[in-house]
Target: DENN domain-containing protein 5B isoform X4
Amino acid sequence: MSATMSGSGSAPCRFAHYFVICGIDNETGLEPDALAGENFDQSPLKRTFKSKVLAHYPENIECNPFDQDAVNMLCMPKGLSFRTQRDSRTPQFHSFLITREDGSRTYGFVHTFYEEVTSPQICSAMQTLHQMHQAEHNASAHNCPSSSSSSSSSSSSSSMDSLASSLDEVESPSSTSSSQGGRRSCGCSGEGYDSVRDTLYVSKAMCLITPMPFMHACKRFLSQVHRAVISNQPPPLPLESYIYNILYEVPLPPPGRSLKFHGVYEPILCQRPGVGELPLADFPLSKAFQLLGVENLVQIFTCVLLEMQILLYSQDYQRLMVVAEGITTLLFPFQWQHVYVPILPASLLHFLDAPVPYLMGLQSKEGTDRSKLELPQEANLCFVDIDNHYIELPEDFPQFPNKTEFIQELSEVLLSFGLSPEGGNTSSEPAVSSQTSVLEKELKSTSLSELVDDRKNGNLGGEALDVLELLQGNPTLERLQALAKRTGVKVARLEALAAGQKAVGEEGVGGRSPVEEEELRNAKLNVQLREVFAARFATMFADYESFVIQNSPDLESWLTNREQMHNFDKASFLSDQPEPYLPFLSHFIETQMFATFIDNKIISQWEEKEPLLRVFDGRIEKARLYNVRAPSLRSSVYQKCTFLKESAQAIEQRLRKMDHTAIHPHLLDMKIGQGKYQQGFFPKLQADVLASGPTNNKWSNRTCSTQRRVDRHRQHNDHLVLDNDLKEKYMQEARSLGKNLRQPKLSDLSPAVIAQTNWKFVEGLLKECKMKTKRMLVEKMGREAVELGHGEVNITGLEENTLIASLCDLLERIWSHGLQVKQGKSALWSHLLHYQTREEKNEQLSESPVSNGQEKRKPESSVGLPALRLSVIQDMRHIQSMGEIKTDVGRARAWIRLSLEKKLLSQSLKQLLSNQALTKKLYKRYAFLRCEEEKEQFLFHLLSLNTVDYFCFTSVFTTIMIPYRAVIIPIKKLSNAMTTSNPWLCVSGELGDSGILQITKNVLEMKFDCQNLGKLTTVQLGHDNSGLLAKWLVDCVMVRNEITGHTYKFPCGKWLGKGVDDGSLERVLIGEFVVPCNDDDGGRGSKTPPLQRSPSQIRRISITSLTGRGNKPTTVQIQESIGEAVNNIIKHFHKPEKERGSLTVLLCGEGGLVWALEQFFHHGFRSARIFQKNVFVWDFYERTVAFLENADQIGDLQEKPEPLGLNSESFCRYVNAINSMPRNIGKDGKFQLLVCLGARDRLLPQWLPLLAECPVITRMYEENALLRDKLTVSSLIAVLETLHDFPITLESSLTKSVEL
Model:
């Protein structure tokens, strides 16, 4: 045992941890593999049978315990497969990985080959099964269905590129071997098995399990071992020597170094990147790009970054692995944080039900169609059909920044290596060249695949030579070769083929074999493609450190308060980014991978930096040194990667000059007579020799001493650093789902474990819901929340949109968890449709309108508007009538937005789930929606969103037609409720106006349909003054959006009519949003502060006759109100453009600029006259104009300074233009318009001295009036001048028909 321990003591530094053999156990015989989905209709040769781990060496390693079930399942994901001499038996290579609970990974590399079955019991069992199958088949159908012919057609159509078709799929006699066994009269028997006539073969797998993904080295080692097994000559040493050597005598290359070790026939090279370089990634990216094309790969990469659900689909396990590993290595410096299973064994298909982001690979059966694949949830799914070069993307998908230039740069790198950026299906082995892949399809022959596979071993068979001649005689290929030579690109693979005719050991360029040359080329291409991706992130996040919030004194307090803390200033970061980047970045900074990256950054102030972070920070530092970035970072100009050459050189230098050569394989102390060689059969290895490593190996002693040194160092730091378990516990809790869900536990599939996994999902979903609703609330409540000690102020519309989109995604995942049968892409919309059908049936039965429990809401606090009927069904019908939305996922999202805007989301979902019979019919017992307590908590979290106002439906669906209802409410005590004139109305909002709408006489209510106006801002109300009762005193106008229920009140409180009040026939009214107060709903009574609103009726009346009342505002109050009005306008312009809201409200609403200046001009104004009409401020303006024009004619103004002359000219021009316009807006309306135009054209400060110095003032203002106080006037001028920096634009409803 001590020996074993010493062997395993240095295990962390060993190249390989285990050597494993999987295959058929002759003792137990044929066991059907129930988990792989048994199909008894198939011929026994096509069925899957259980494989076993036959042997693994060593027995166990402490740092990486051997998981027998997981390894067996991943070495042979589809179990054993059988072949006869008629079938293709090309060896296959694939890799896999196992993610342990702490997030670390172990890699497996598998070489699967076919071995003749020697056990008579197994042959006769197969014969019996076949006879039973035949009997059943003949009984069920006399005329045999053409299963063989269909199989052969599928085989031939699959051609070369499908050679990788799954190991258990039987290929029918291919074109080269059809003459041997032949088809018989009945198609079925053609693929049958007869123990006398046929030789039976079964799959067997050799696997190396390693701590690091040295794919090429492992592939070469395993293929050399297989070559030794099938060779005519026994290998130079027993196989034990080579396996012992790689397990115990080959070390991991240290960072930045290369290593050479020996396989059975040839040396094998591998290298490991240095500390400052991108981490090791040995899977060929060129293959991933060829399989999918650059554009598709960038789209999938974006989906992975945004943590969607990604499902890879291919017949070939290695393709699944190459694409999954390729994409995750490109994420540097970020890491995928969720479920990651590149090869999902058939027994784990229920894992596709996981309501979390995942990246999984699913093996497709030959001939199965995408449409037949039933996936539990597709609302947020990116489906990647690798074999058919096809992807399906989720809806509402933001593009990667600078995508076009990015694709261009990647294409240039690929072209420089002679690869097409469009990609295209290639054979499962690397193609001879991108052109040949087309040729291979034409050839449809297995011999080429054998050649391609064999070429890796450096020898060419007889048939292969014919193929080579055929290839060389191909004119298209010759043209391509000539072109390649001219441009200096080597078609290395073709040259390698030609070179294959020379001696096997003969070396290629620079003393390296063609295979090594090929690997070097692959490594250089890999690193250059990765550098382009890394450079994008280095550019995008060049200044990320400035936005990291570090506010904890030590690690322990940070970890304890991790959940409550803001670690990254998202709002400032986004405001610093170029506009085109925002849709992507606003989503990305909400992901788990970004949160973990920032966590690692903060932890690095107390602990050693995480390796990826260290490399990334080094990159950013280097970029800063090379080019000092200008202070304006908002440029979205694309910057190309500058590291391409040096990164490729580093790899080339390492491979040209080997740093380490491992000990050569040597004879071991083996028992005599064992290790016998029998061609074509993998020998039974001597377990005692392979069980433990050398005890006196210098290298293992060295690593042990280093290990001891590391241990001492760790003990020394233990009292300084937080206990790792505690840290891991905190980190897991801090993330929405712990790392224990990164990969399902493969070894235990008992119902209890599945139930426990589902329970973890339920808990995770609830926690995520709590986090998301809290974040939405905190962001939305803004300043108040900050004062209460939460987070940062000011949510941007972009951020709000991102949060709502992520809420929609969460709801879809909750609704798709535990579905009985999937219908449509959106589980939520499907549930709503079921509900609608049931309710409409009930409605017809009772012949009464749908009563949905929440049928009526009390009428709004307004008078006059009839109550809006509320129901889930009603909202669904609105959504269904929107032609702009084409998909179920889109409809579900629109319904969520609408319910959120109406503050009914929690209530509607509660109602949907109250139909328990329906929920039971649609969902399995373990589904989230059937966990009562969690469901209640979930609805409660959603209820908290009712405390804030969202406009997420109105602001997104801007082009839809919306029905509005308007009601005019007169003051009945003081005026006629009736009027003989013809009234009209025009409603304006942030997105447009309704145009002039004629109102039927004496009908005070109207409905009209109009394209979405957005938030409503103003209403123009007027009449034509006809008839005897033309005067009309209007209290207010109410307008309601009939879809969202949002109601706006437009206070008036003035007369419309000639000869009354200020003689106005038309008024512009400013809207205020009416917060619905409903006593029935607990959560709905809480309000956010009301928006700016126009002066209420009492205020309006009091302003025009301030002097006659006892409530005059003081001079201090007036000055303060002007300051505040100006301040609000300045704040408006400091907000991002999309967040600003209505400027009209700030100019003309209550507390707005017009209102404040009105108070100023009314101070000390002599307006009331005994026995005379009231005088208005506008009268003062008109007299000032008369005086100025008169003085100008007499020539009094000649001696005035120049600017004053210009000012008087502009003042007269504006007042005359307003007076001469056709609209009859009354004197108060004219005053409002003049102030707005003066603010827009920056003239107010120039007009004030003119008014203050005009002699008319003495007759119309008292001595103490503010307008007659020079000091006050000059300070007012200074305040108004601050508005000159901002471009004030006015709504057309204000400035209509003014000719200036």
Observations:
- The mean pLDDT is 75.
